[in-house]
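# step 3/5: fold
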Amino acid sequence: LTFVEPRFKMHLNKELARLSKVIHLVEQDKRLVPLLRHLREQYLAFGDFKQEATGITGTLSLSNLEQAYKIAFPPCMLQMRERLKSHHHLKYDGRKQLGAFLKRAGLSVEDSLTFWKSSFMGSHVTPEKFDKEYAYAVRYLYGKEGNGHGFKPFSCVRMIMGEPPNERDGKIHGCPFKTMNEDQLNAMLRRLGVTGTALRESVAAAKGEHFQIACQKSFNGRYGVEDDDVVVNPNDYFDKAMMLAEAKTKASAGSAAAAKGAPRVPQQDAAAAVAAMMGAPAPQAAGAAAGVGSAK
């Protein structure tokens, strides 16, 4: 270590100096600007979430988990959830990644224990075997056992750089934009409703090993939005997707209310929610834009 460390620092300083001279050229590429903007927020090791934090869209629970999984899970978590549903089991890496994701999304430790126990039903894992061999790991993930720290959710970079899954061993985890071949990726994205330009751009980005950009392209195609912020964490993807779903529900309620002659406040709230999420100014009502009825 005493031999390697000073040489590594010397090499790192040299390369950083070289980078500082050409960074302005890199910043001219509009495709890279969002990624550069988020470099400070990348969770390169263990993430940067507070242990007590939950998703911005409310608490995930057993009552809404199935609906949320269908409309808002990112592809990485979706593939693990689907494997769990079909095989009633998930290998350790997959359990850790999915479990930490669900924890950050708001699933309580009690609901998590129920979720995993019921998901394992139908496999070789009996309720007694689960309590004996798996329940401790779930409680540990939440900081209820061991050192009390628990597991933080995985960043995209950590999932991309981690050990790739071995399908022959029944392992499903990591970033599908890295682990899937082109045919598998096309099939998965089409199931999510990603077609046309978004599909082609997403697959092309994945082939070019720009996995996070590929995920963002698929997000835009899946939800019909234009969001330039590169996905940096599965829970960020989930939060944005849930906000879009809630905004869509409010907009539909507003349209229904308007058809009955009621005020269209919910629809305006929904538009403001979407605008806030995308970093744009909230749209004004027609009267407010014209300066009508404003109160001092």
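# step 4/5: annotate
The CA atoms of residues 251 and 267 lie 4 Å apart.
# step 5/5: archive (pending)
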